[in-house]
Amino acid sequence: MAPVDSLSFKCALITGGGGGLGKAMAVELLKRGKKVLIAGRTESTLKATASEIGATGYYVLDTGSSLNEISNAIEQIIKDHPDVDCLINNAGVQRPLHVLSKDYKFDFNSADQEININIRGPMYLTVKFIQDHFVNLENGAVIMNVSSVLGFIPFSVINPVYNGTKAWVHMFTTNIRQQLAAEDSKIKVIEVVPPQVESDLHRDRVNPDDNKKENSPSALSVDEFMADVVKGWENNQDTVSAGPGIAVTKQWDETFGEKLKKMAK
């Protein structure tokens, strides 16, 4: 039994779907006739986005909250939409944290929140959806976890916690894919690896626009990012990146991919 294809699902739940890359993925999937549910922390934003793009519904969900709160949200989503067969873990935050810098302090509360949103949220959602719902779907399901090139090469040195959380997403996604393959599961596990993309991810920096093209020529627009992501989806790739991220993920796979397969056996 092989996993389903990347775009074979009918109904997707996208965390962080109120804006940025989550909204862009939602728009693309809606164009393809998919049913889309969006989730996030701010109801006003979710409501406005759902109305704007034509999403079927929205859920107020803080992915940094407790397992009990996330479990309750999952239960409600499955009850409302038993046809949900795709989870896209896109929600994430990036905080500049520095042990000695005059511009940024190392705030432990901020770091804890970053870890909760970027690690515990995707972990809880992935495992609970697999165990409580996806494993029971006759036609299979799709999980997409959004990491970052910074999880492969941590060149943005003022984001040590963010970089570490995205390295965790990469490793976690890799191992969940391996576990499901060993169980002959029909659940497809995809890692989406953004490079630097124009967004509000840098909103906590001294210059929140330092990821815009006028300040960083290598940055991709959201449209450029999505064009490559769509190609990855259509080619049924396990790892989907864009722009300069394609070379980074390819190099990682060429360096460690075969060795990982051998050692995992």
Automatic annotation (TrEMBL):
Keywords: Oxidoreductase. GO terms for cellular component: membrane. One of its GO terms (molecular function) is oxidoreductase activity. Belongs to the short-chain dehydrogenases/reductases (SDR) family. This is Oxidoreductase. It comes from Kwoniella bestiolae CBS 10118.
